[in-house]
Design brief:
two-stranded antiparallel sheet, BirA Bifunctional Protein, domain 2, about 180 residues, about 35% strand, single chain, alpha+beta
């Protein structure tokens, strides 16, 4: 199954990653399911950092990877694949972004995206992962932190779903690489 076979689009949610985690607890979510939200009012970053965006202007989503079966010692591999997919997506839009490891994407010294991966473990093996992504698409002003968006960088409006579908296309190589 590929990422994005099922997309659940929500108007508003605390966190797309929390939403998937709750579906997992009830065994109500398939591998590759994407949760997309117009408004994510309690998004998280690494070490509890807050991810705050204007509703409807940015791509905030999470997806589930089941049966990852990756050694915990190789967990950074997932972060690399997702981060580089975002860099490639931005490059397709004419933007030269860079990864600030472990989980931020920068464009001209300003943050344009963030990745948060939450792994479910069994002994020393990752059994499943919830991959959360925030990508600034159309937002033009950011209060309190240095950030940018695709629209600021290119001057062009992009629909959120078009950007999501472009990201899903990049996941074809990602899917092969981790054999999901």
């Amino acid at each position: 199954m590929k990422i994005g076979n099922k997309i659940i689009h929500l108007d508003s949610v605390d966190s797309t990653s929390n939403y998937i985690a709750n579906l997992m607890k009830r065994n109500e979510v398939e591998n590759g399911t994407v949760i997309l939200a117009d408004d994510q009012f309690d998004g998280r970053g690494q070490r509890g950092a807050e991810w705050s965006v204007n509703p409807g202007e940015n791509l905030t989503f999470s997806f589930l990877l089941k049966n990852v079966n990756l050694s915990v010692s190789n967990q950074f591999f997932l972060t690399e694949l997702v981060s580089l997919s975002l860099v490639n997506l931005l490059q397709k839009n004419g933007l030269k972004a860079e990864v600030k490891w472990p989980n931020d994407i920068y464009l001209n010294g300003e943050k344009i995206a963030g990745v948060l991966i939450e792994n479910q473990l069994s002994h020393a093996t990752i059994k499943s992962s919830i991959v959360g992504i925030g990508l600034n698409v159309n937002q033009e002003s950011f209060m309190g932190f240095s950030a940018t968006s695709i629209k600021i960088a290119t001057g062009q409006f992009r629909t959120i779903k078009d950007v999501l579908f472009s990201f899903i296309e990049f996941q074809k190589s990602f899917r092969v690489a981790i054999l999901i």
